[in-house]
Amino acid sequence: MPNWYRSLLFSLEHYKVQNKRFGFRAKCKYALPTGTTSTTPRNSTYNYTMAAVTCKRLRVRGKAVILGDDILMVLSLSILLSVWVKCVASFKMVLKAKEPQLDGEATFLSRRIIVDVDTPCMVPLIGKMLVRFNCRGTMNDACTDSQYMAGKALSYAYECRHVPFLRDYFLRRYAMEDAAAVTLDDLTWFARTSGVDLTNIVEAIRSERVLVTDDQFECWLIEHHDCTLVECRELFEAVIVSAEQVTLDLPNIEYFRKDYE
User: Fold this and answer.
1) At what angle do helices 39-58 and 3-11 cross, to 10 degrees?
2) How many helices (H) and strands (E) does the chain have?
3) What are 17's strand-pairing partners?
4) 62-67 vs 70-75, strand pairing mode
5) What DSSP character marks residue 103?
6) Within 13 Å of residue 83, how many CA atoms lie on the same side as its CB?
7) Could you tell me the pTM of the whole model?
8) β partners of residue 66
9) Quick one: fold of 39-103?
């Protein structure tokens, strides 16, 4: 860790906050501020430090991908989660972790990994996408419902670009909505920070080279969600493509319950 970054972390042990609207000011000590530009790198530092200490105490080696408070590790030996929880507790932190038994059960940044393909890739949690898709998440009155849904559909199409089966449903919904009114602010964080813009994002989605075929995706679905493409297609037609305001009563959503519980 570079010395300048250590100095930065130590300097944040004491800081001031204020609310100009209500006229409040406060001095904070030994608390972790959130919502700042240093939040993600700071959380990443805490995360890998606690993981490294745990591995050293248990004498195991491994590799990890870390971003903020999310972590996915592959270790040389299986460890007890209770031991990891106890180690993290010594930092006055709380660990929420799982032991995935299959590759598809491992998650990172609300995504699952598809590894039984030529080039491994990630796909968003399908159940989480479905239950959130038709919900408006902005209070901006200037943004119409159609504009909002166009932005969300385009964002999800980008995040599902490796899986044409999923990607095409979101592109269809995007074409159904007010696509011309979409701005960068209407896209999700992942889409906005990907380096593409509104002039080339659809082209970037369709020209993605790392692809999962329908047969490969169905094998993955059967293994990890116990459902087929036919069952998944019925669900996506009802939730993604249809704009009708109805209460769905499809048992197929049960296949993806573990994604949003």
Assistant:
1) 110
2) 10, 6
3) 26
4) antiparallel
5) G
6) 13
7) 0.81
8) 71
9) Alpha-Beta Plaits (3.30.70)
Across residues 186-190, what is the average pLDDT?
A: 86
Identify the bridge partners of residue 48 per DSSP, sorted by sequence position: none
Name beta bridge partners: 123: 112
Using CA atoms, how far apart are residues 112 and 123, in angstroms rounded to an integer? 5
In 3-state terms, what secondary structure has residue 242? coil
Residue 190 tokens read as 């992942």
Amino acid identity for residue 2 in this structure: P
Contact 65, 72 (CB under 8 A): yes
Determine contact, residues 43/80, Cβ cutoff 8 Å: no
| Tokens representing residue 207 in the block | 């020209």
Whether 214 shows a pLDDT value over 80: the answer reads yes
Domain extents in the chain: 39-103, 111-259
Distances (CA, A) of 203 to 31, 150, 194, 252: 45, 16, 14, 32
The residue ranking higher by pLDDT, 195 or 235, is 235
Q: Residue 48 in 3-state DSSP?
A: helix
Model confidence at 104: pLDDT above 80: no
User: Got the DSSP string for 64-89?
Assistant: EEEETTEEEEEESS---HHHHHHHHH
Instruction: Evaluate whether 234 touches 250 at the Cβ level (below 8 Å).
Output: yes
Q: For residue 14, give every residue at least 6 positions away whose Cβ sits within 8 Å of its Cβ, in sequence order, or none.
A: 27, 28, 29
3-state SS class at 26: strand
